Structures are given as structure tokens and as C-alpha cells.
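Annual report, structural modelling task.

Input specification for the zinc ion complex:
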Amino acid sequence: MTAAASDPDCVFCKIIAGDLPCKKVYEDEELLAFHDIAPGAPVHFLILPKVHLESMLHVDEGHQALLGRILGLAPRLAMEQGCNPYPDGGFRIMVNTGLEGGQEVAHLHFHVMGGARSWKKGQAN
Ligand code: 5GP
Ligand code: ZN
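The model returned the following structure:
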């Protein structure tokens, strides 16, 4: 992997290290999931790799298994967190990338959003 293990200035690395609190949804050796501090949907949590990888544009072949694990985990966590059953329910997975992609935190994270739909298509917040 090309990513640094962690970045002392990164807010998500601080959460991973336990230096900042979060409302945890899931944790294992490689991944952490926690509720978004400013939810844009009734269910809104983030899944991220513990390794400090800045964005989708910093992903290479060595990260394929990691990304596969995130996508594999998302449906299970979404349902556990209260997303409604398919097909009337469901959820959205979103990965903002770079300034023009709406990325605010430079540590790769997958938004998982769902629940009764007052939230708007394409919006994170
Ligand atoms: P981005 O715009 O980078 O895709 O999304 C960053 C998300 O992280 C935003 O939805 C924002 O509300 C959330 N966020 C930023 N700082 C914190 C924090 O300290 N704790 C938690 N739980 N979420 C955060
Ligand atoms: Zn980080």
C-alpha cells in the first residue's frame, strides 16, 4: 500500500486512534464505521479504512480487497442500522472525491444513507 498508516492532522485518523469520540457502528482490524455527526438521512453512517488513504483517487490495485470488504459490509450494516427492506427501502452508498466531488474530510470514507425519504437525491447533507 502507498498510504501512510495514519496522519496526525486527520480528523478521521484521530477518531480511529480513539483520540476523538464517535458513535461506533462497526469495527474490525481494517475498518471502522460510525454515525455521521451531521446526518443527511434518517440512517447515515460512514465506513472507512483504518489506514489513512486520502480519497478514491489514491486507490490502487493493492486496495481492491479493502474496498471489496467495505462494499460487502455496507448492506449488512445498513439493515442493522434501520434501513428499510428492499425494494421499497434500500440505501445509497456515496464516495465524495476531491473538492469538486464534495469531499470535506481527506480520509477515504463511504457514506451509507437510507431511511424514510425526506432527503434529496445527490445530497450528502
Ligand atoms: P465528505 O464531505 O468528506 O464526503 O463527508 C465528510 C462527512 O464527515 C460529513 O458528512 C461530516 O458531517 C462528517 N464528519 C466530519 N467531521 C466529523 C466528526 O468529527 N465526526 C463524525 N462522526 N462525522 C464527521
Ligand atoms: Zn486519516
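The chain has one domain: 11-114.
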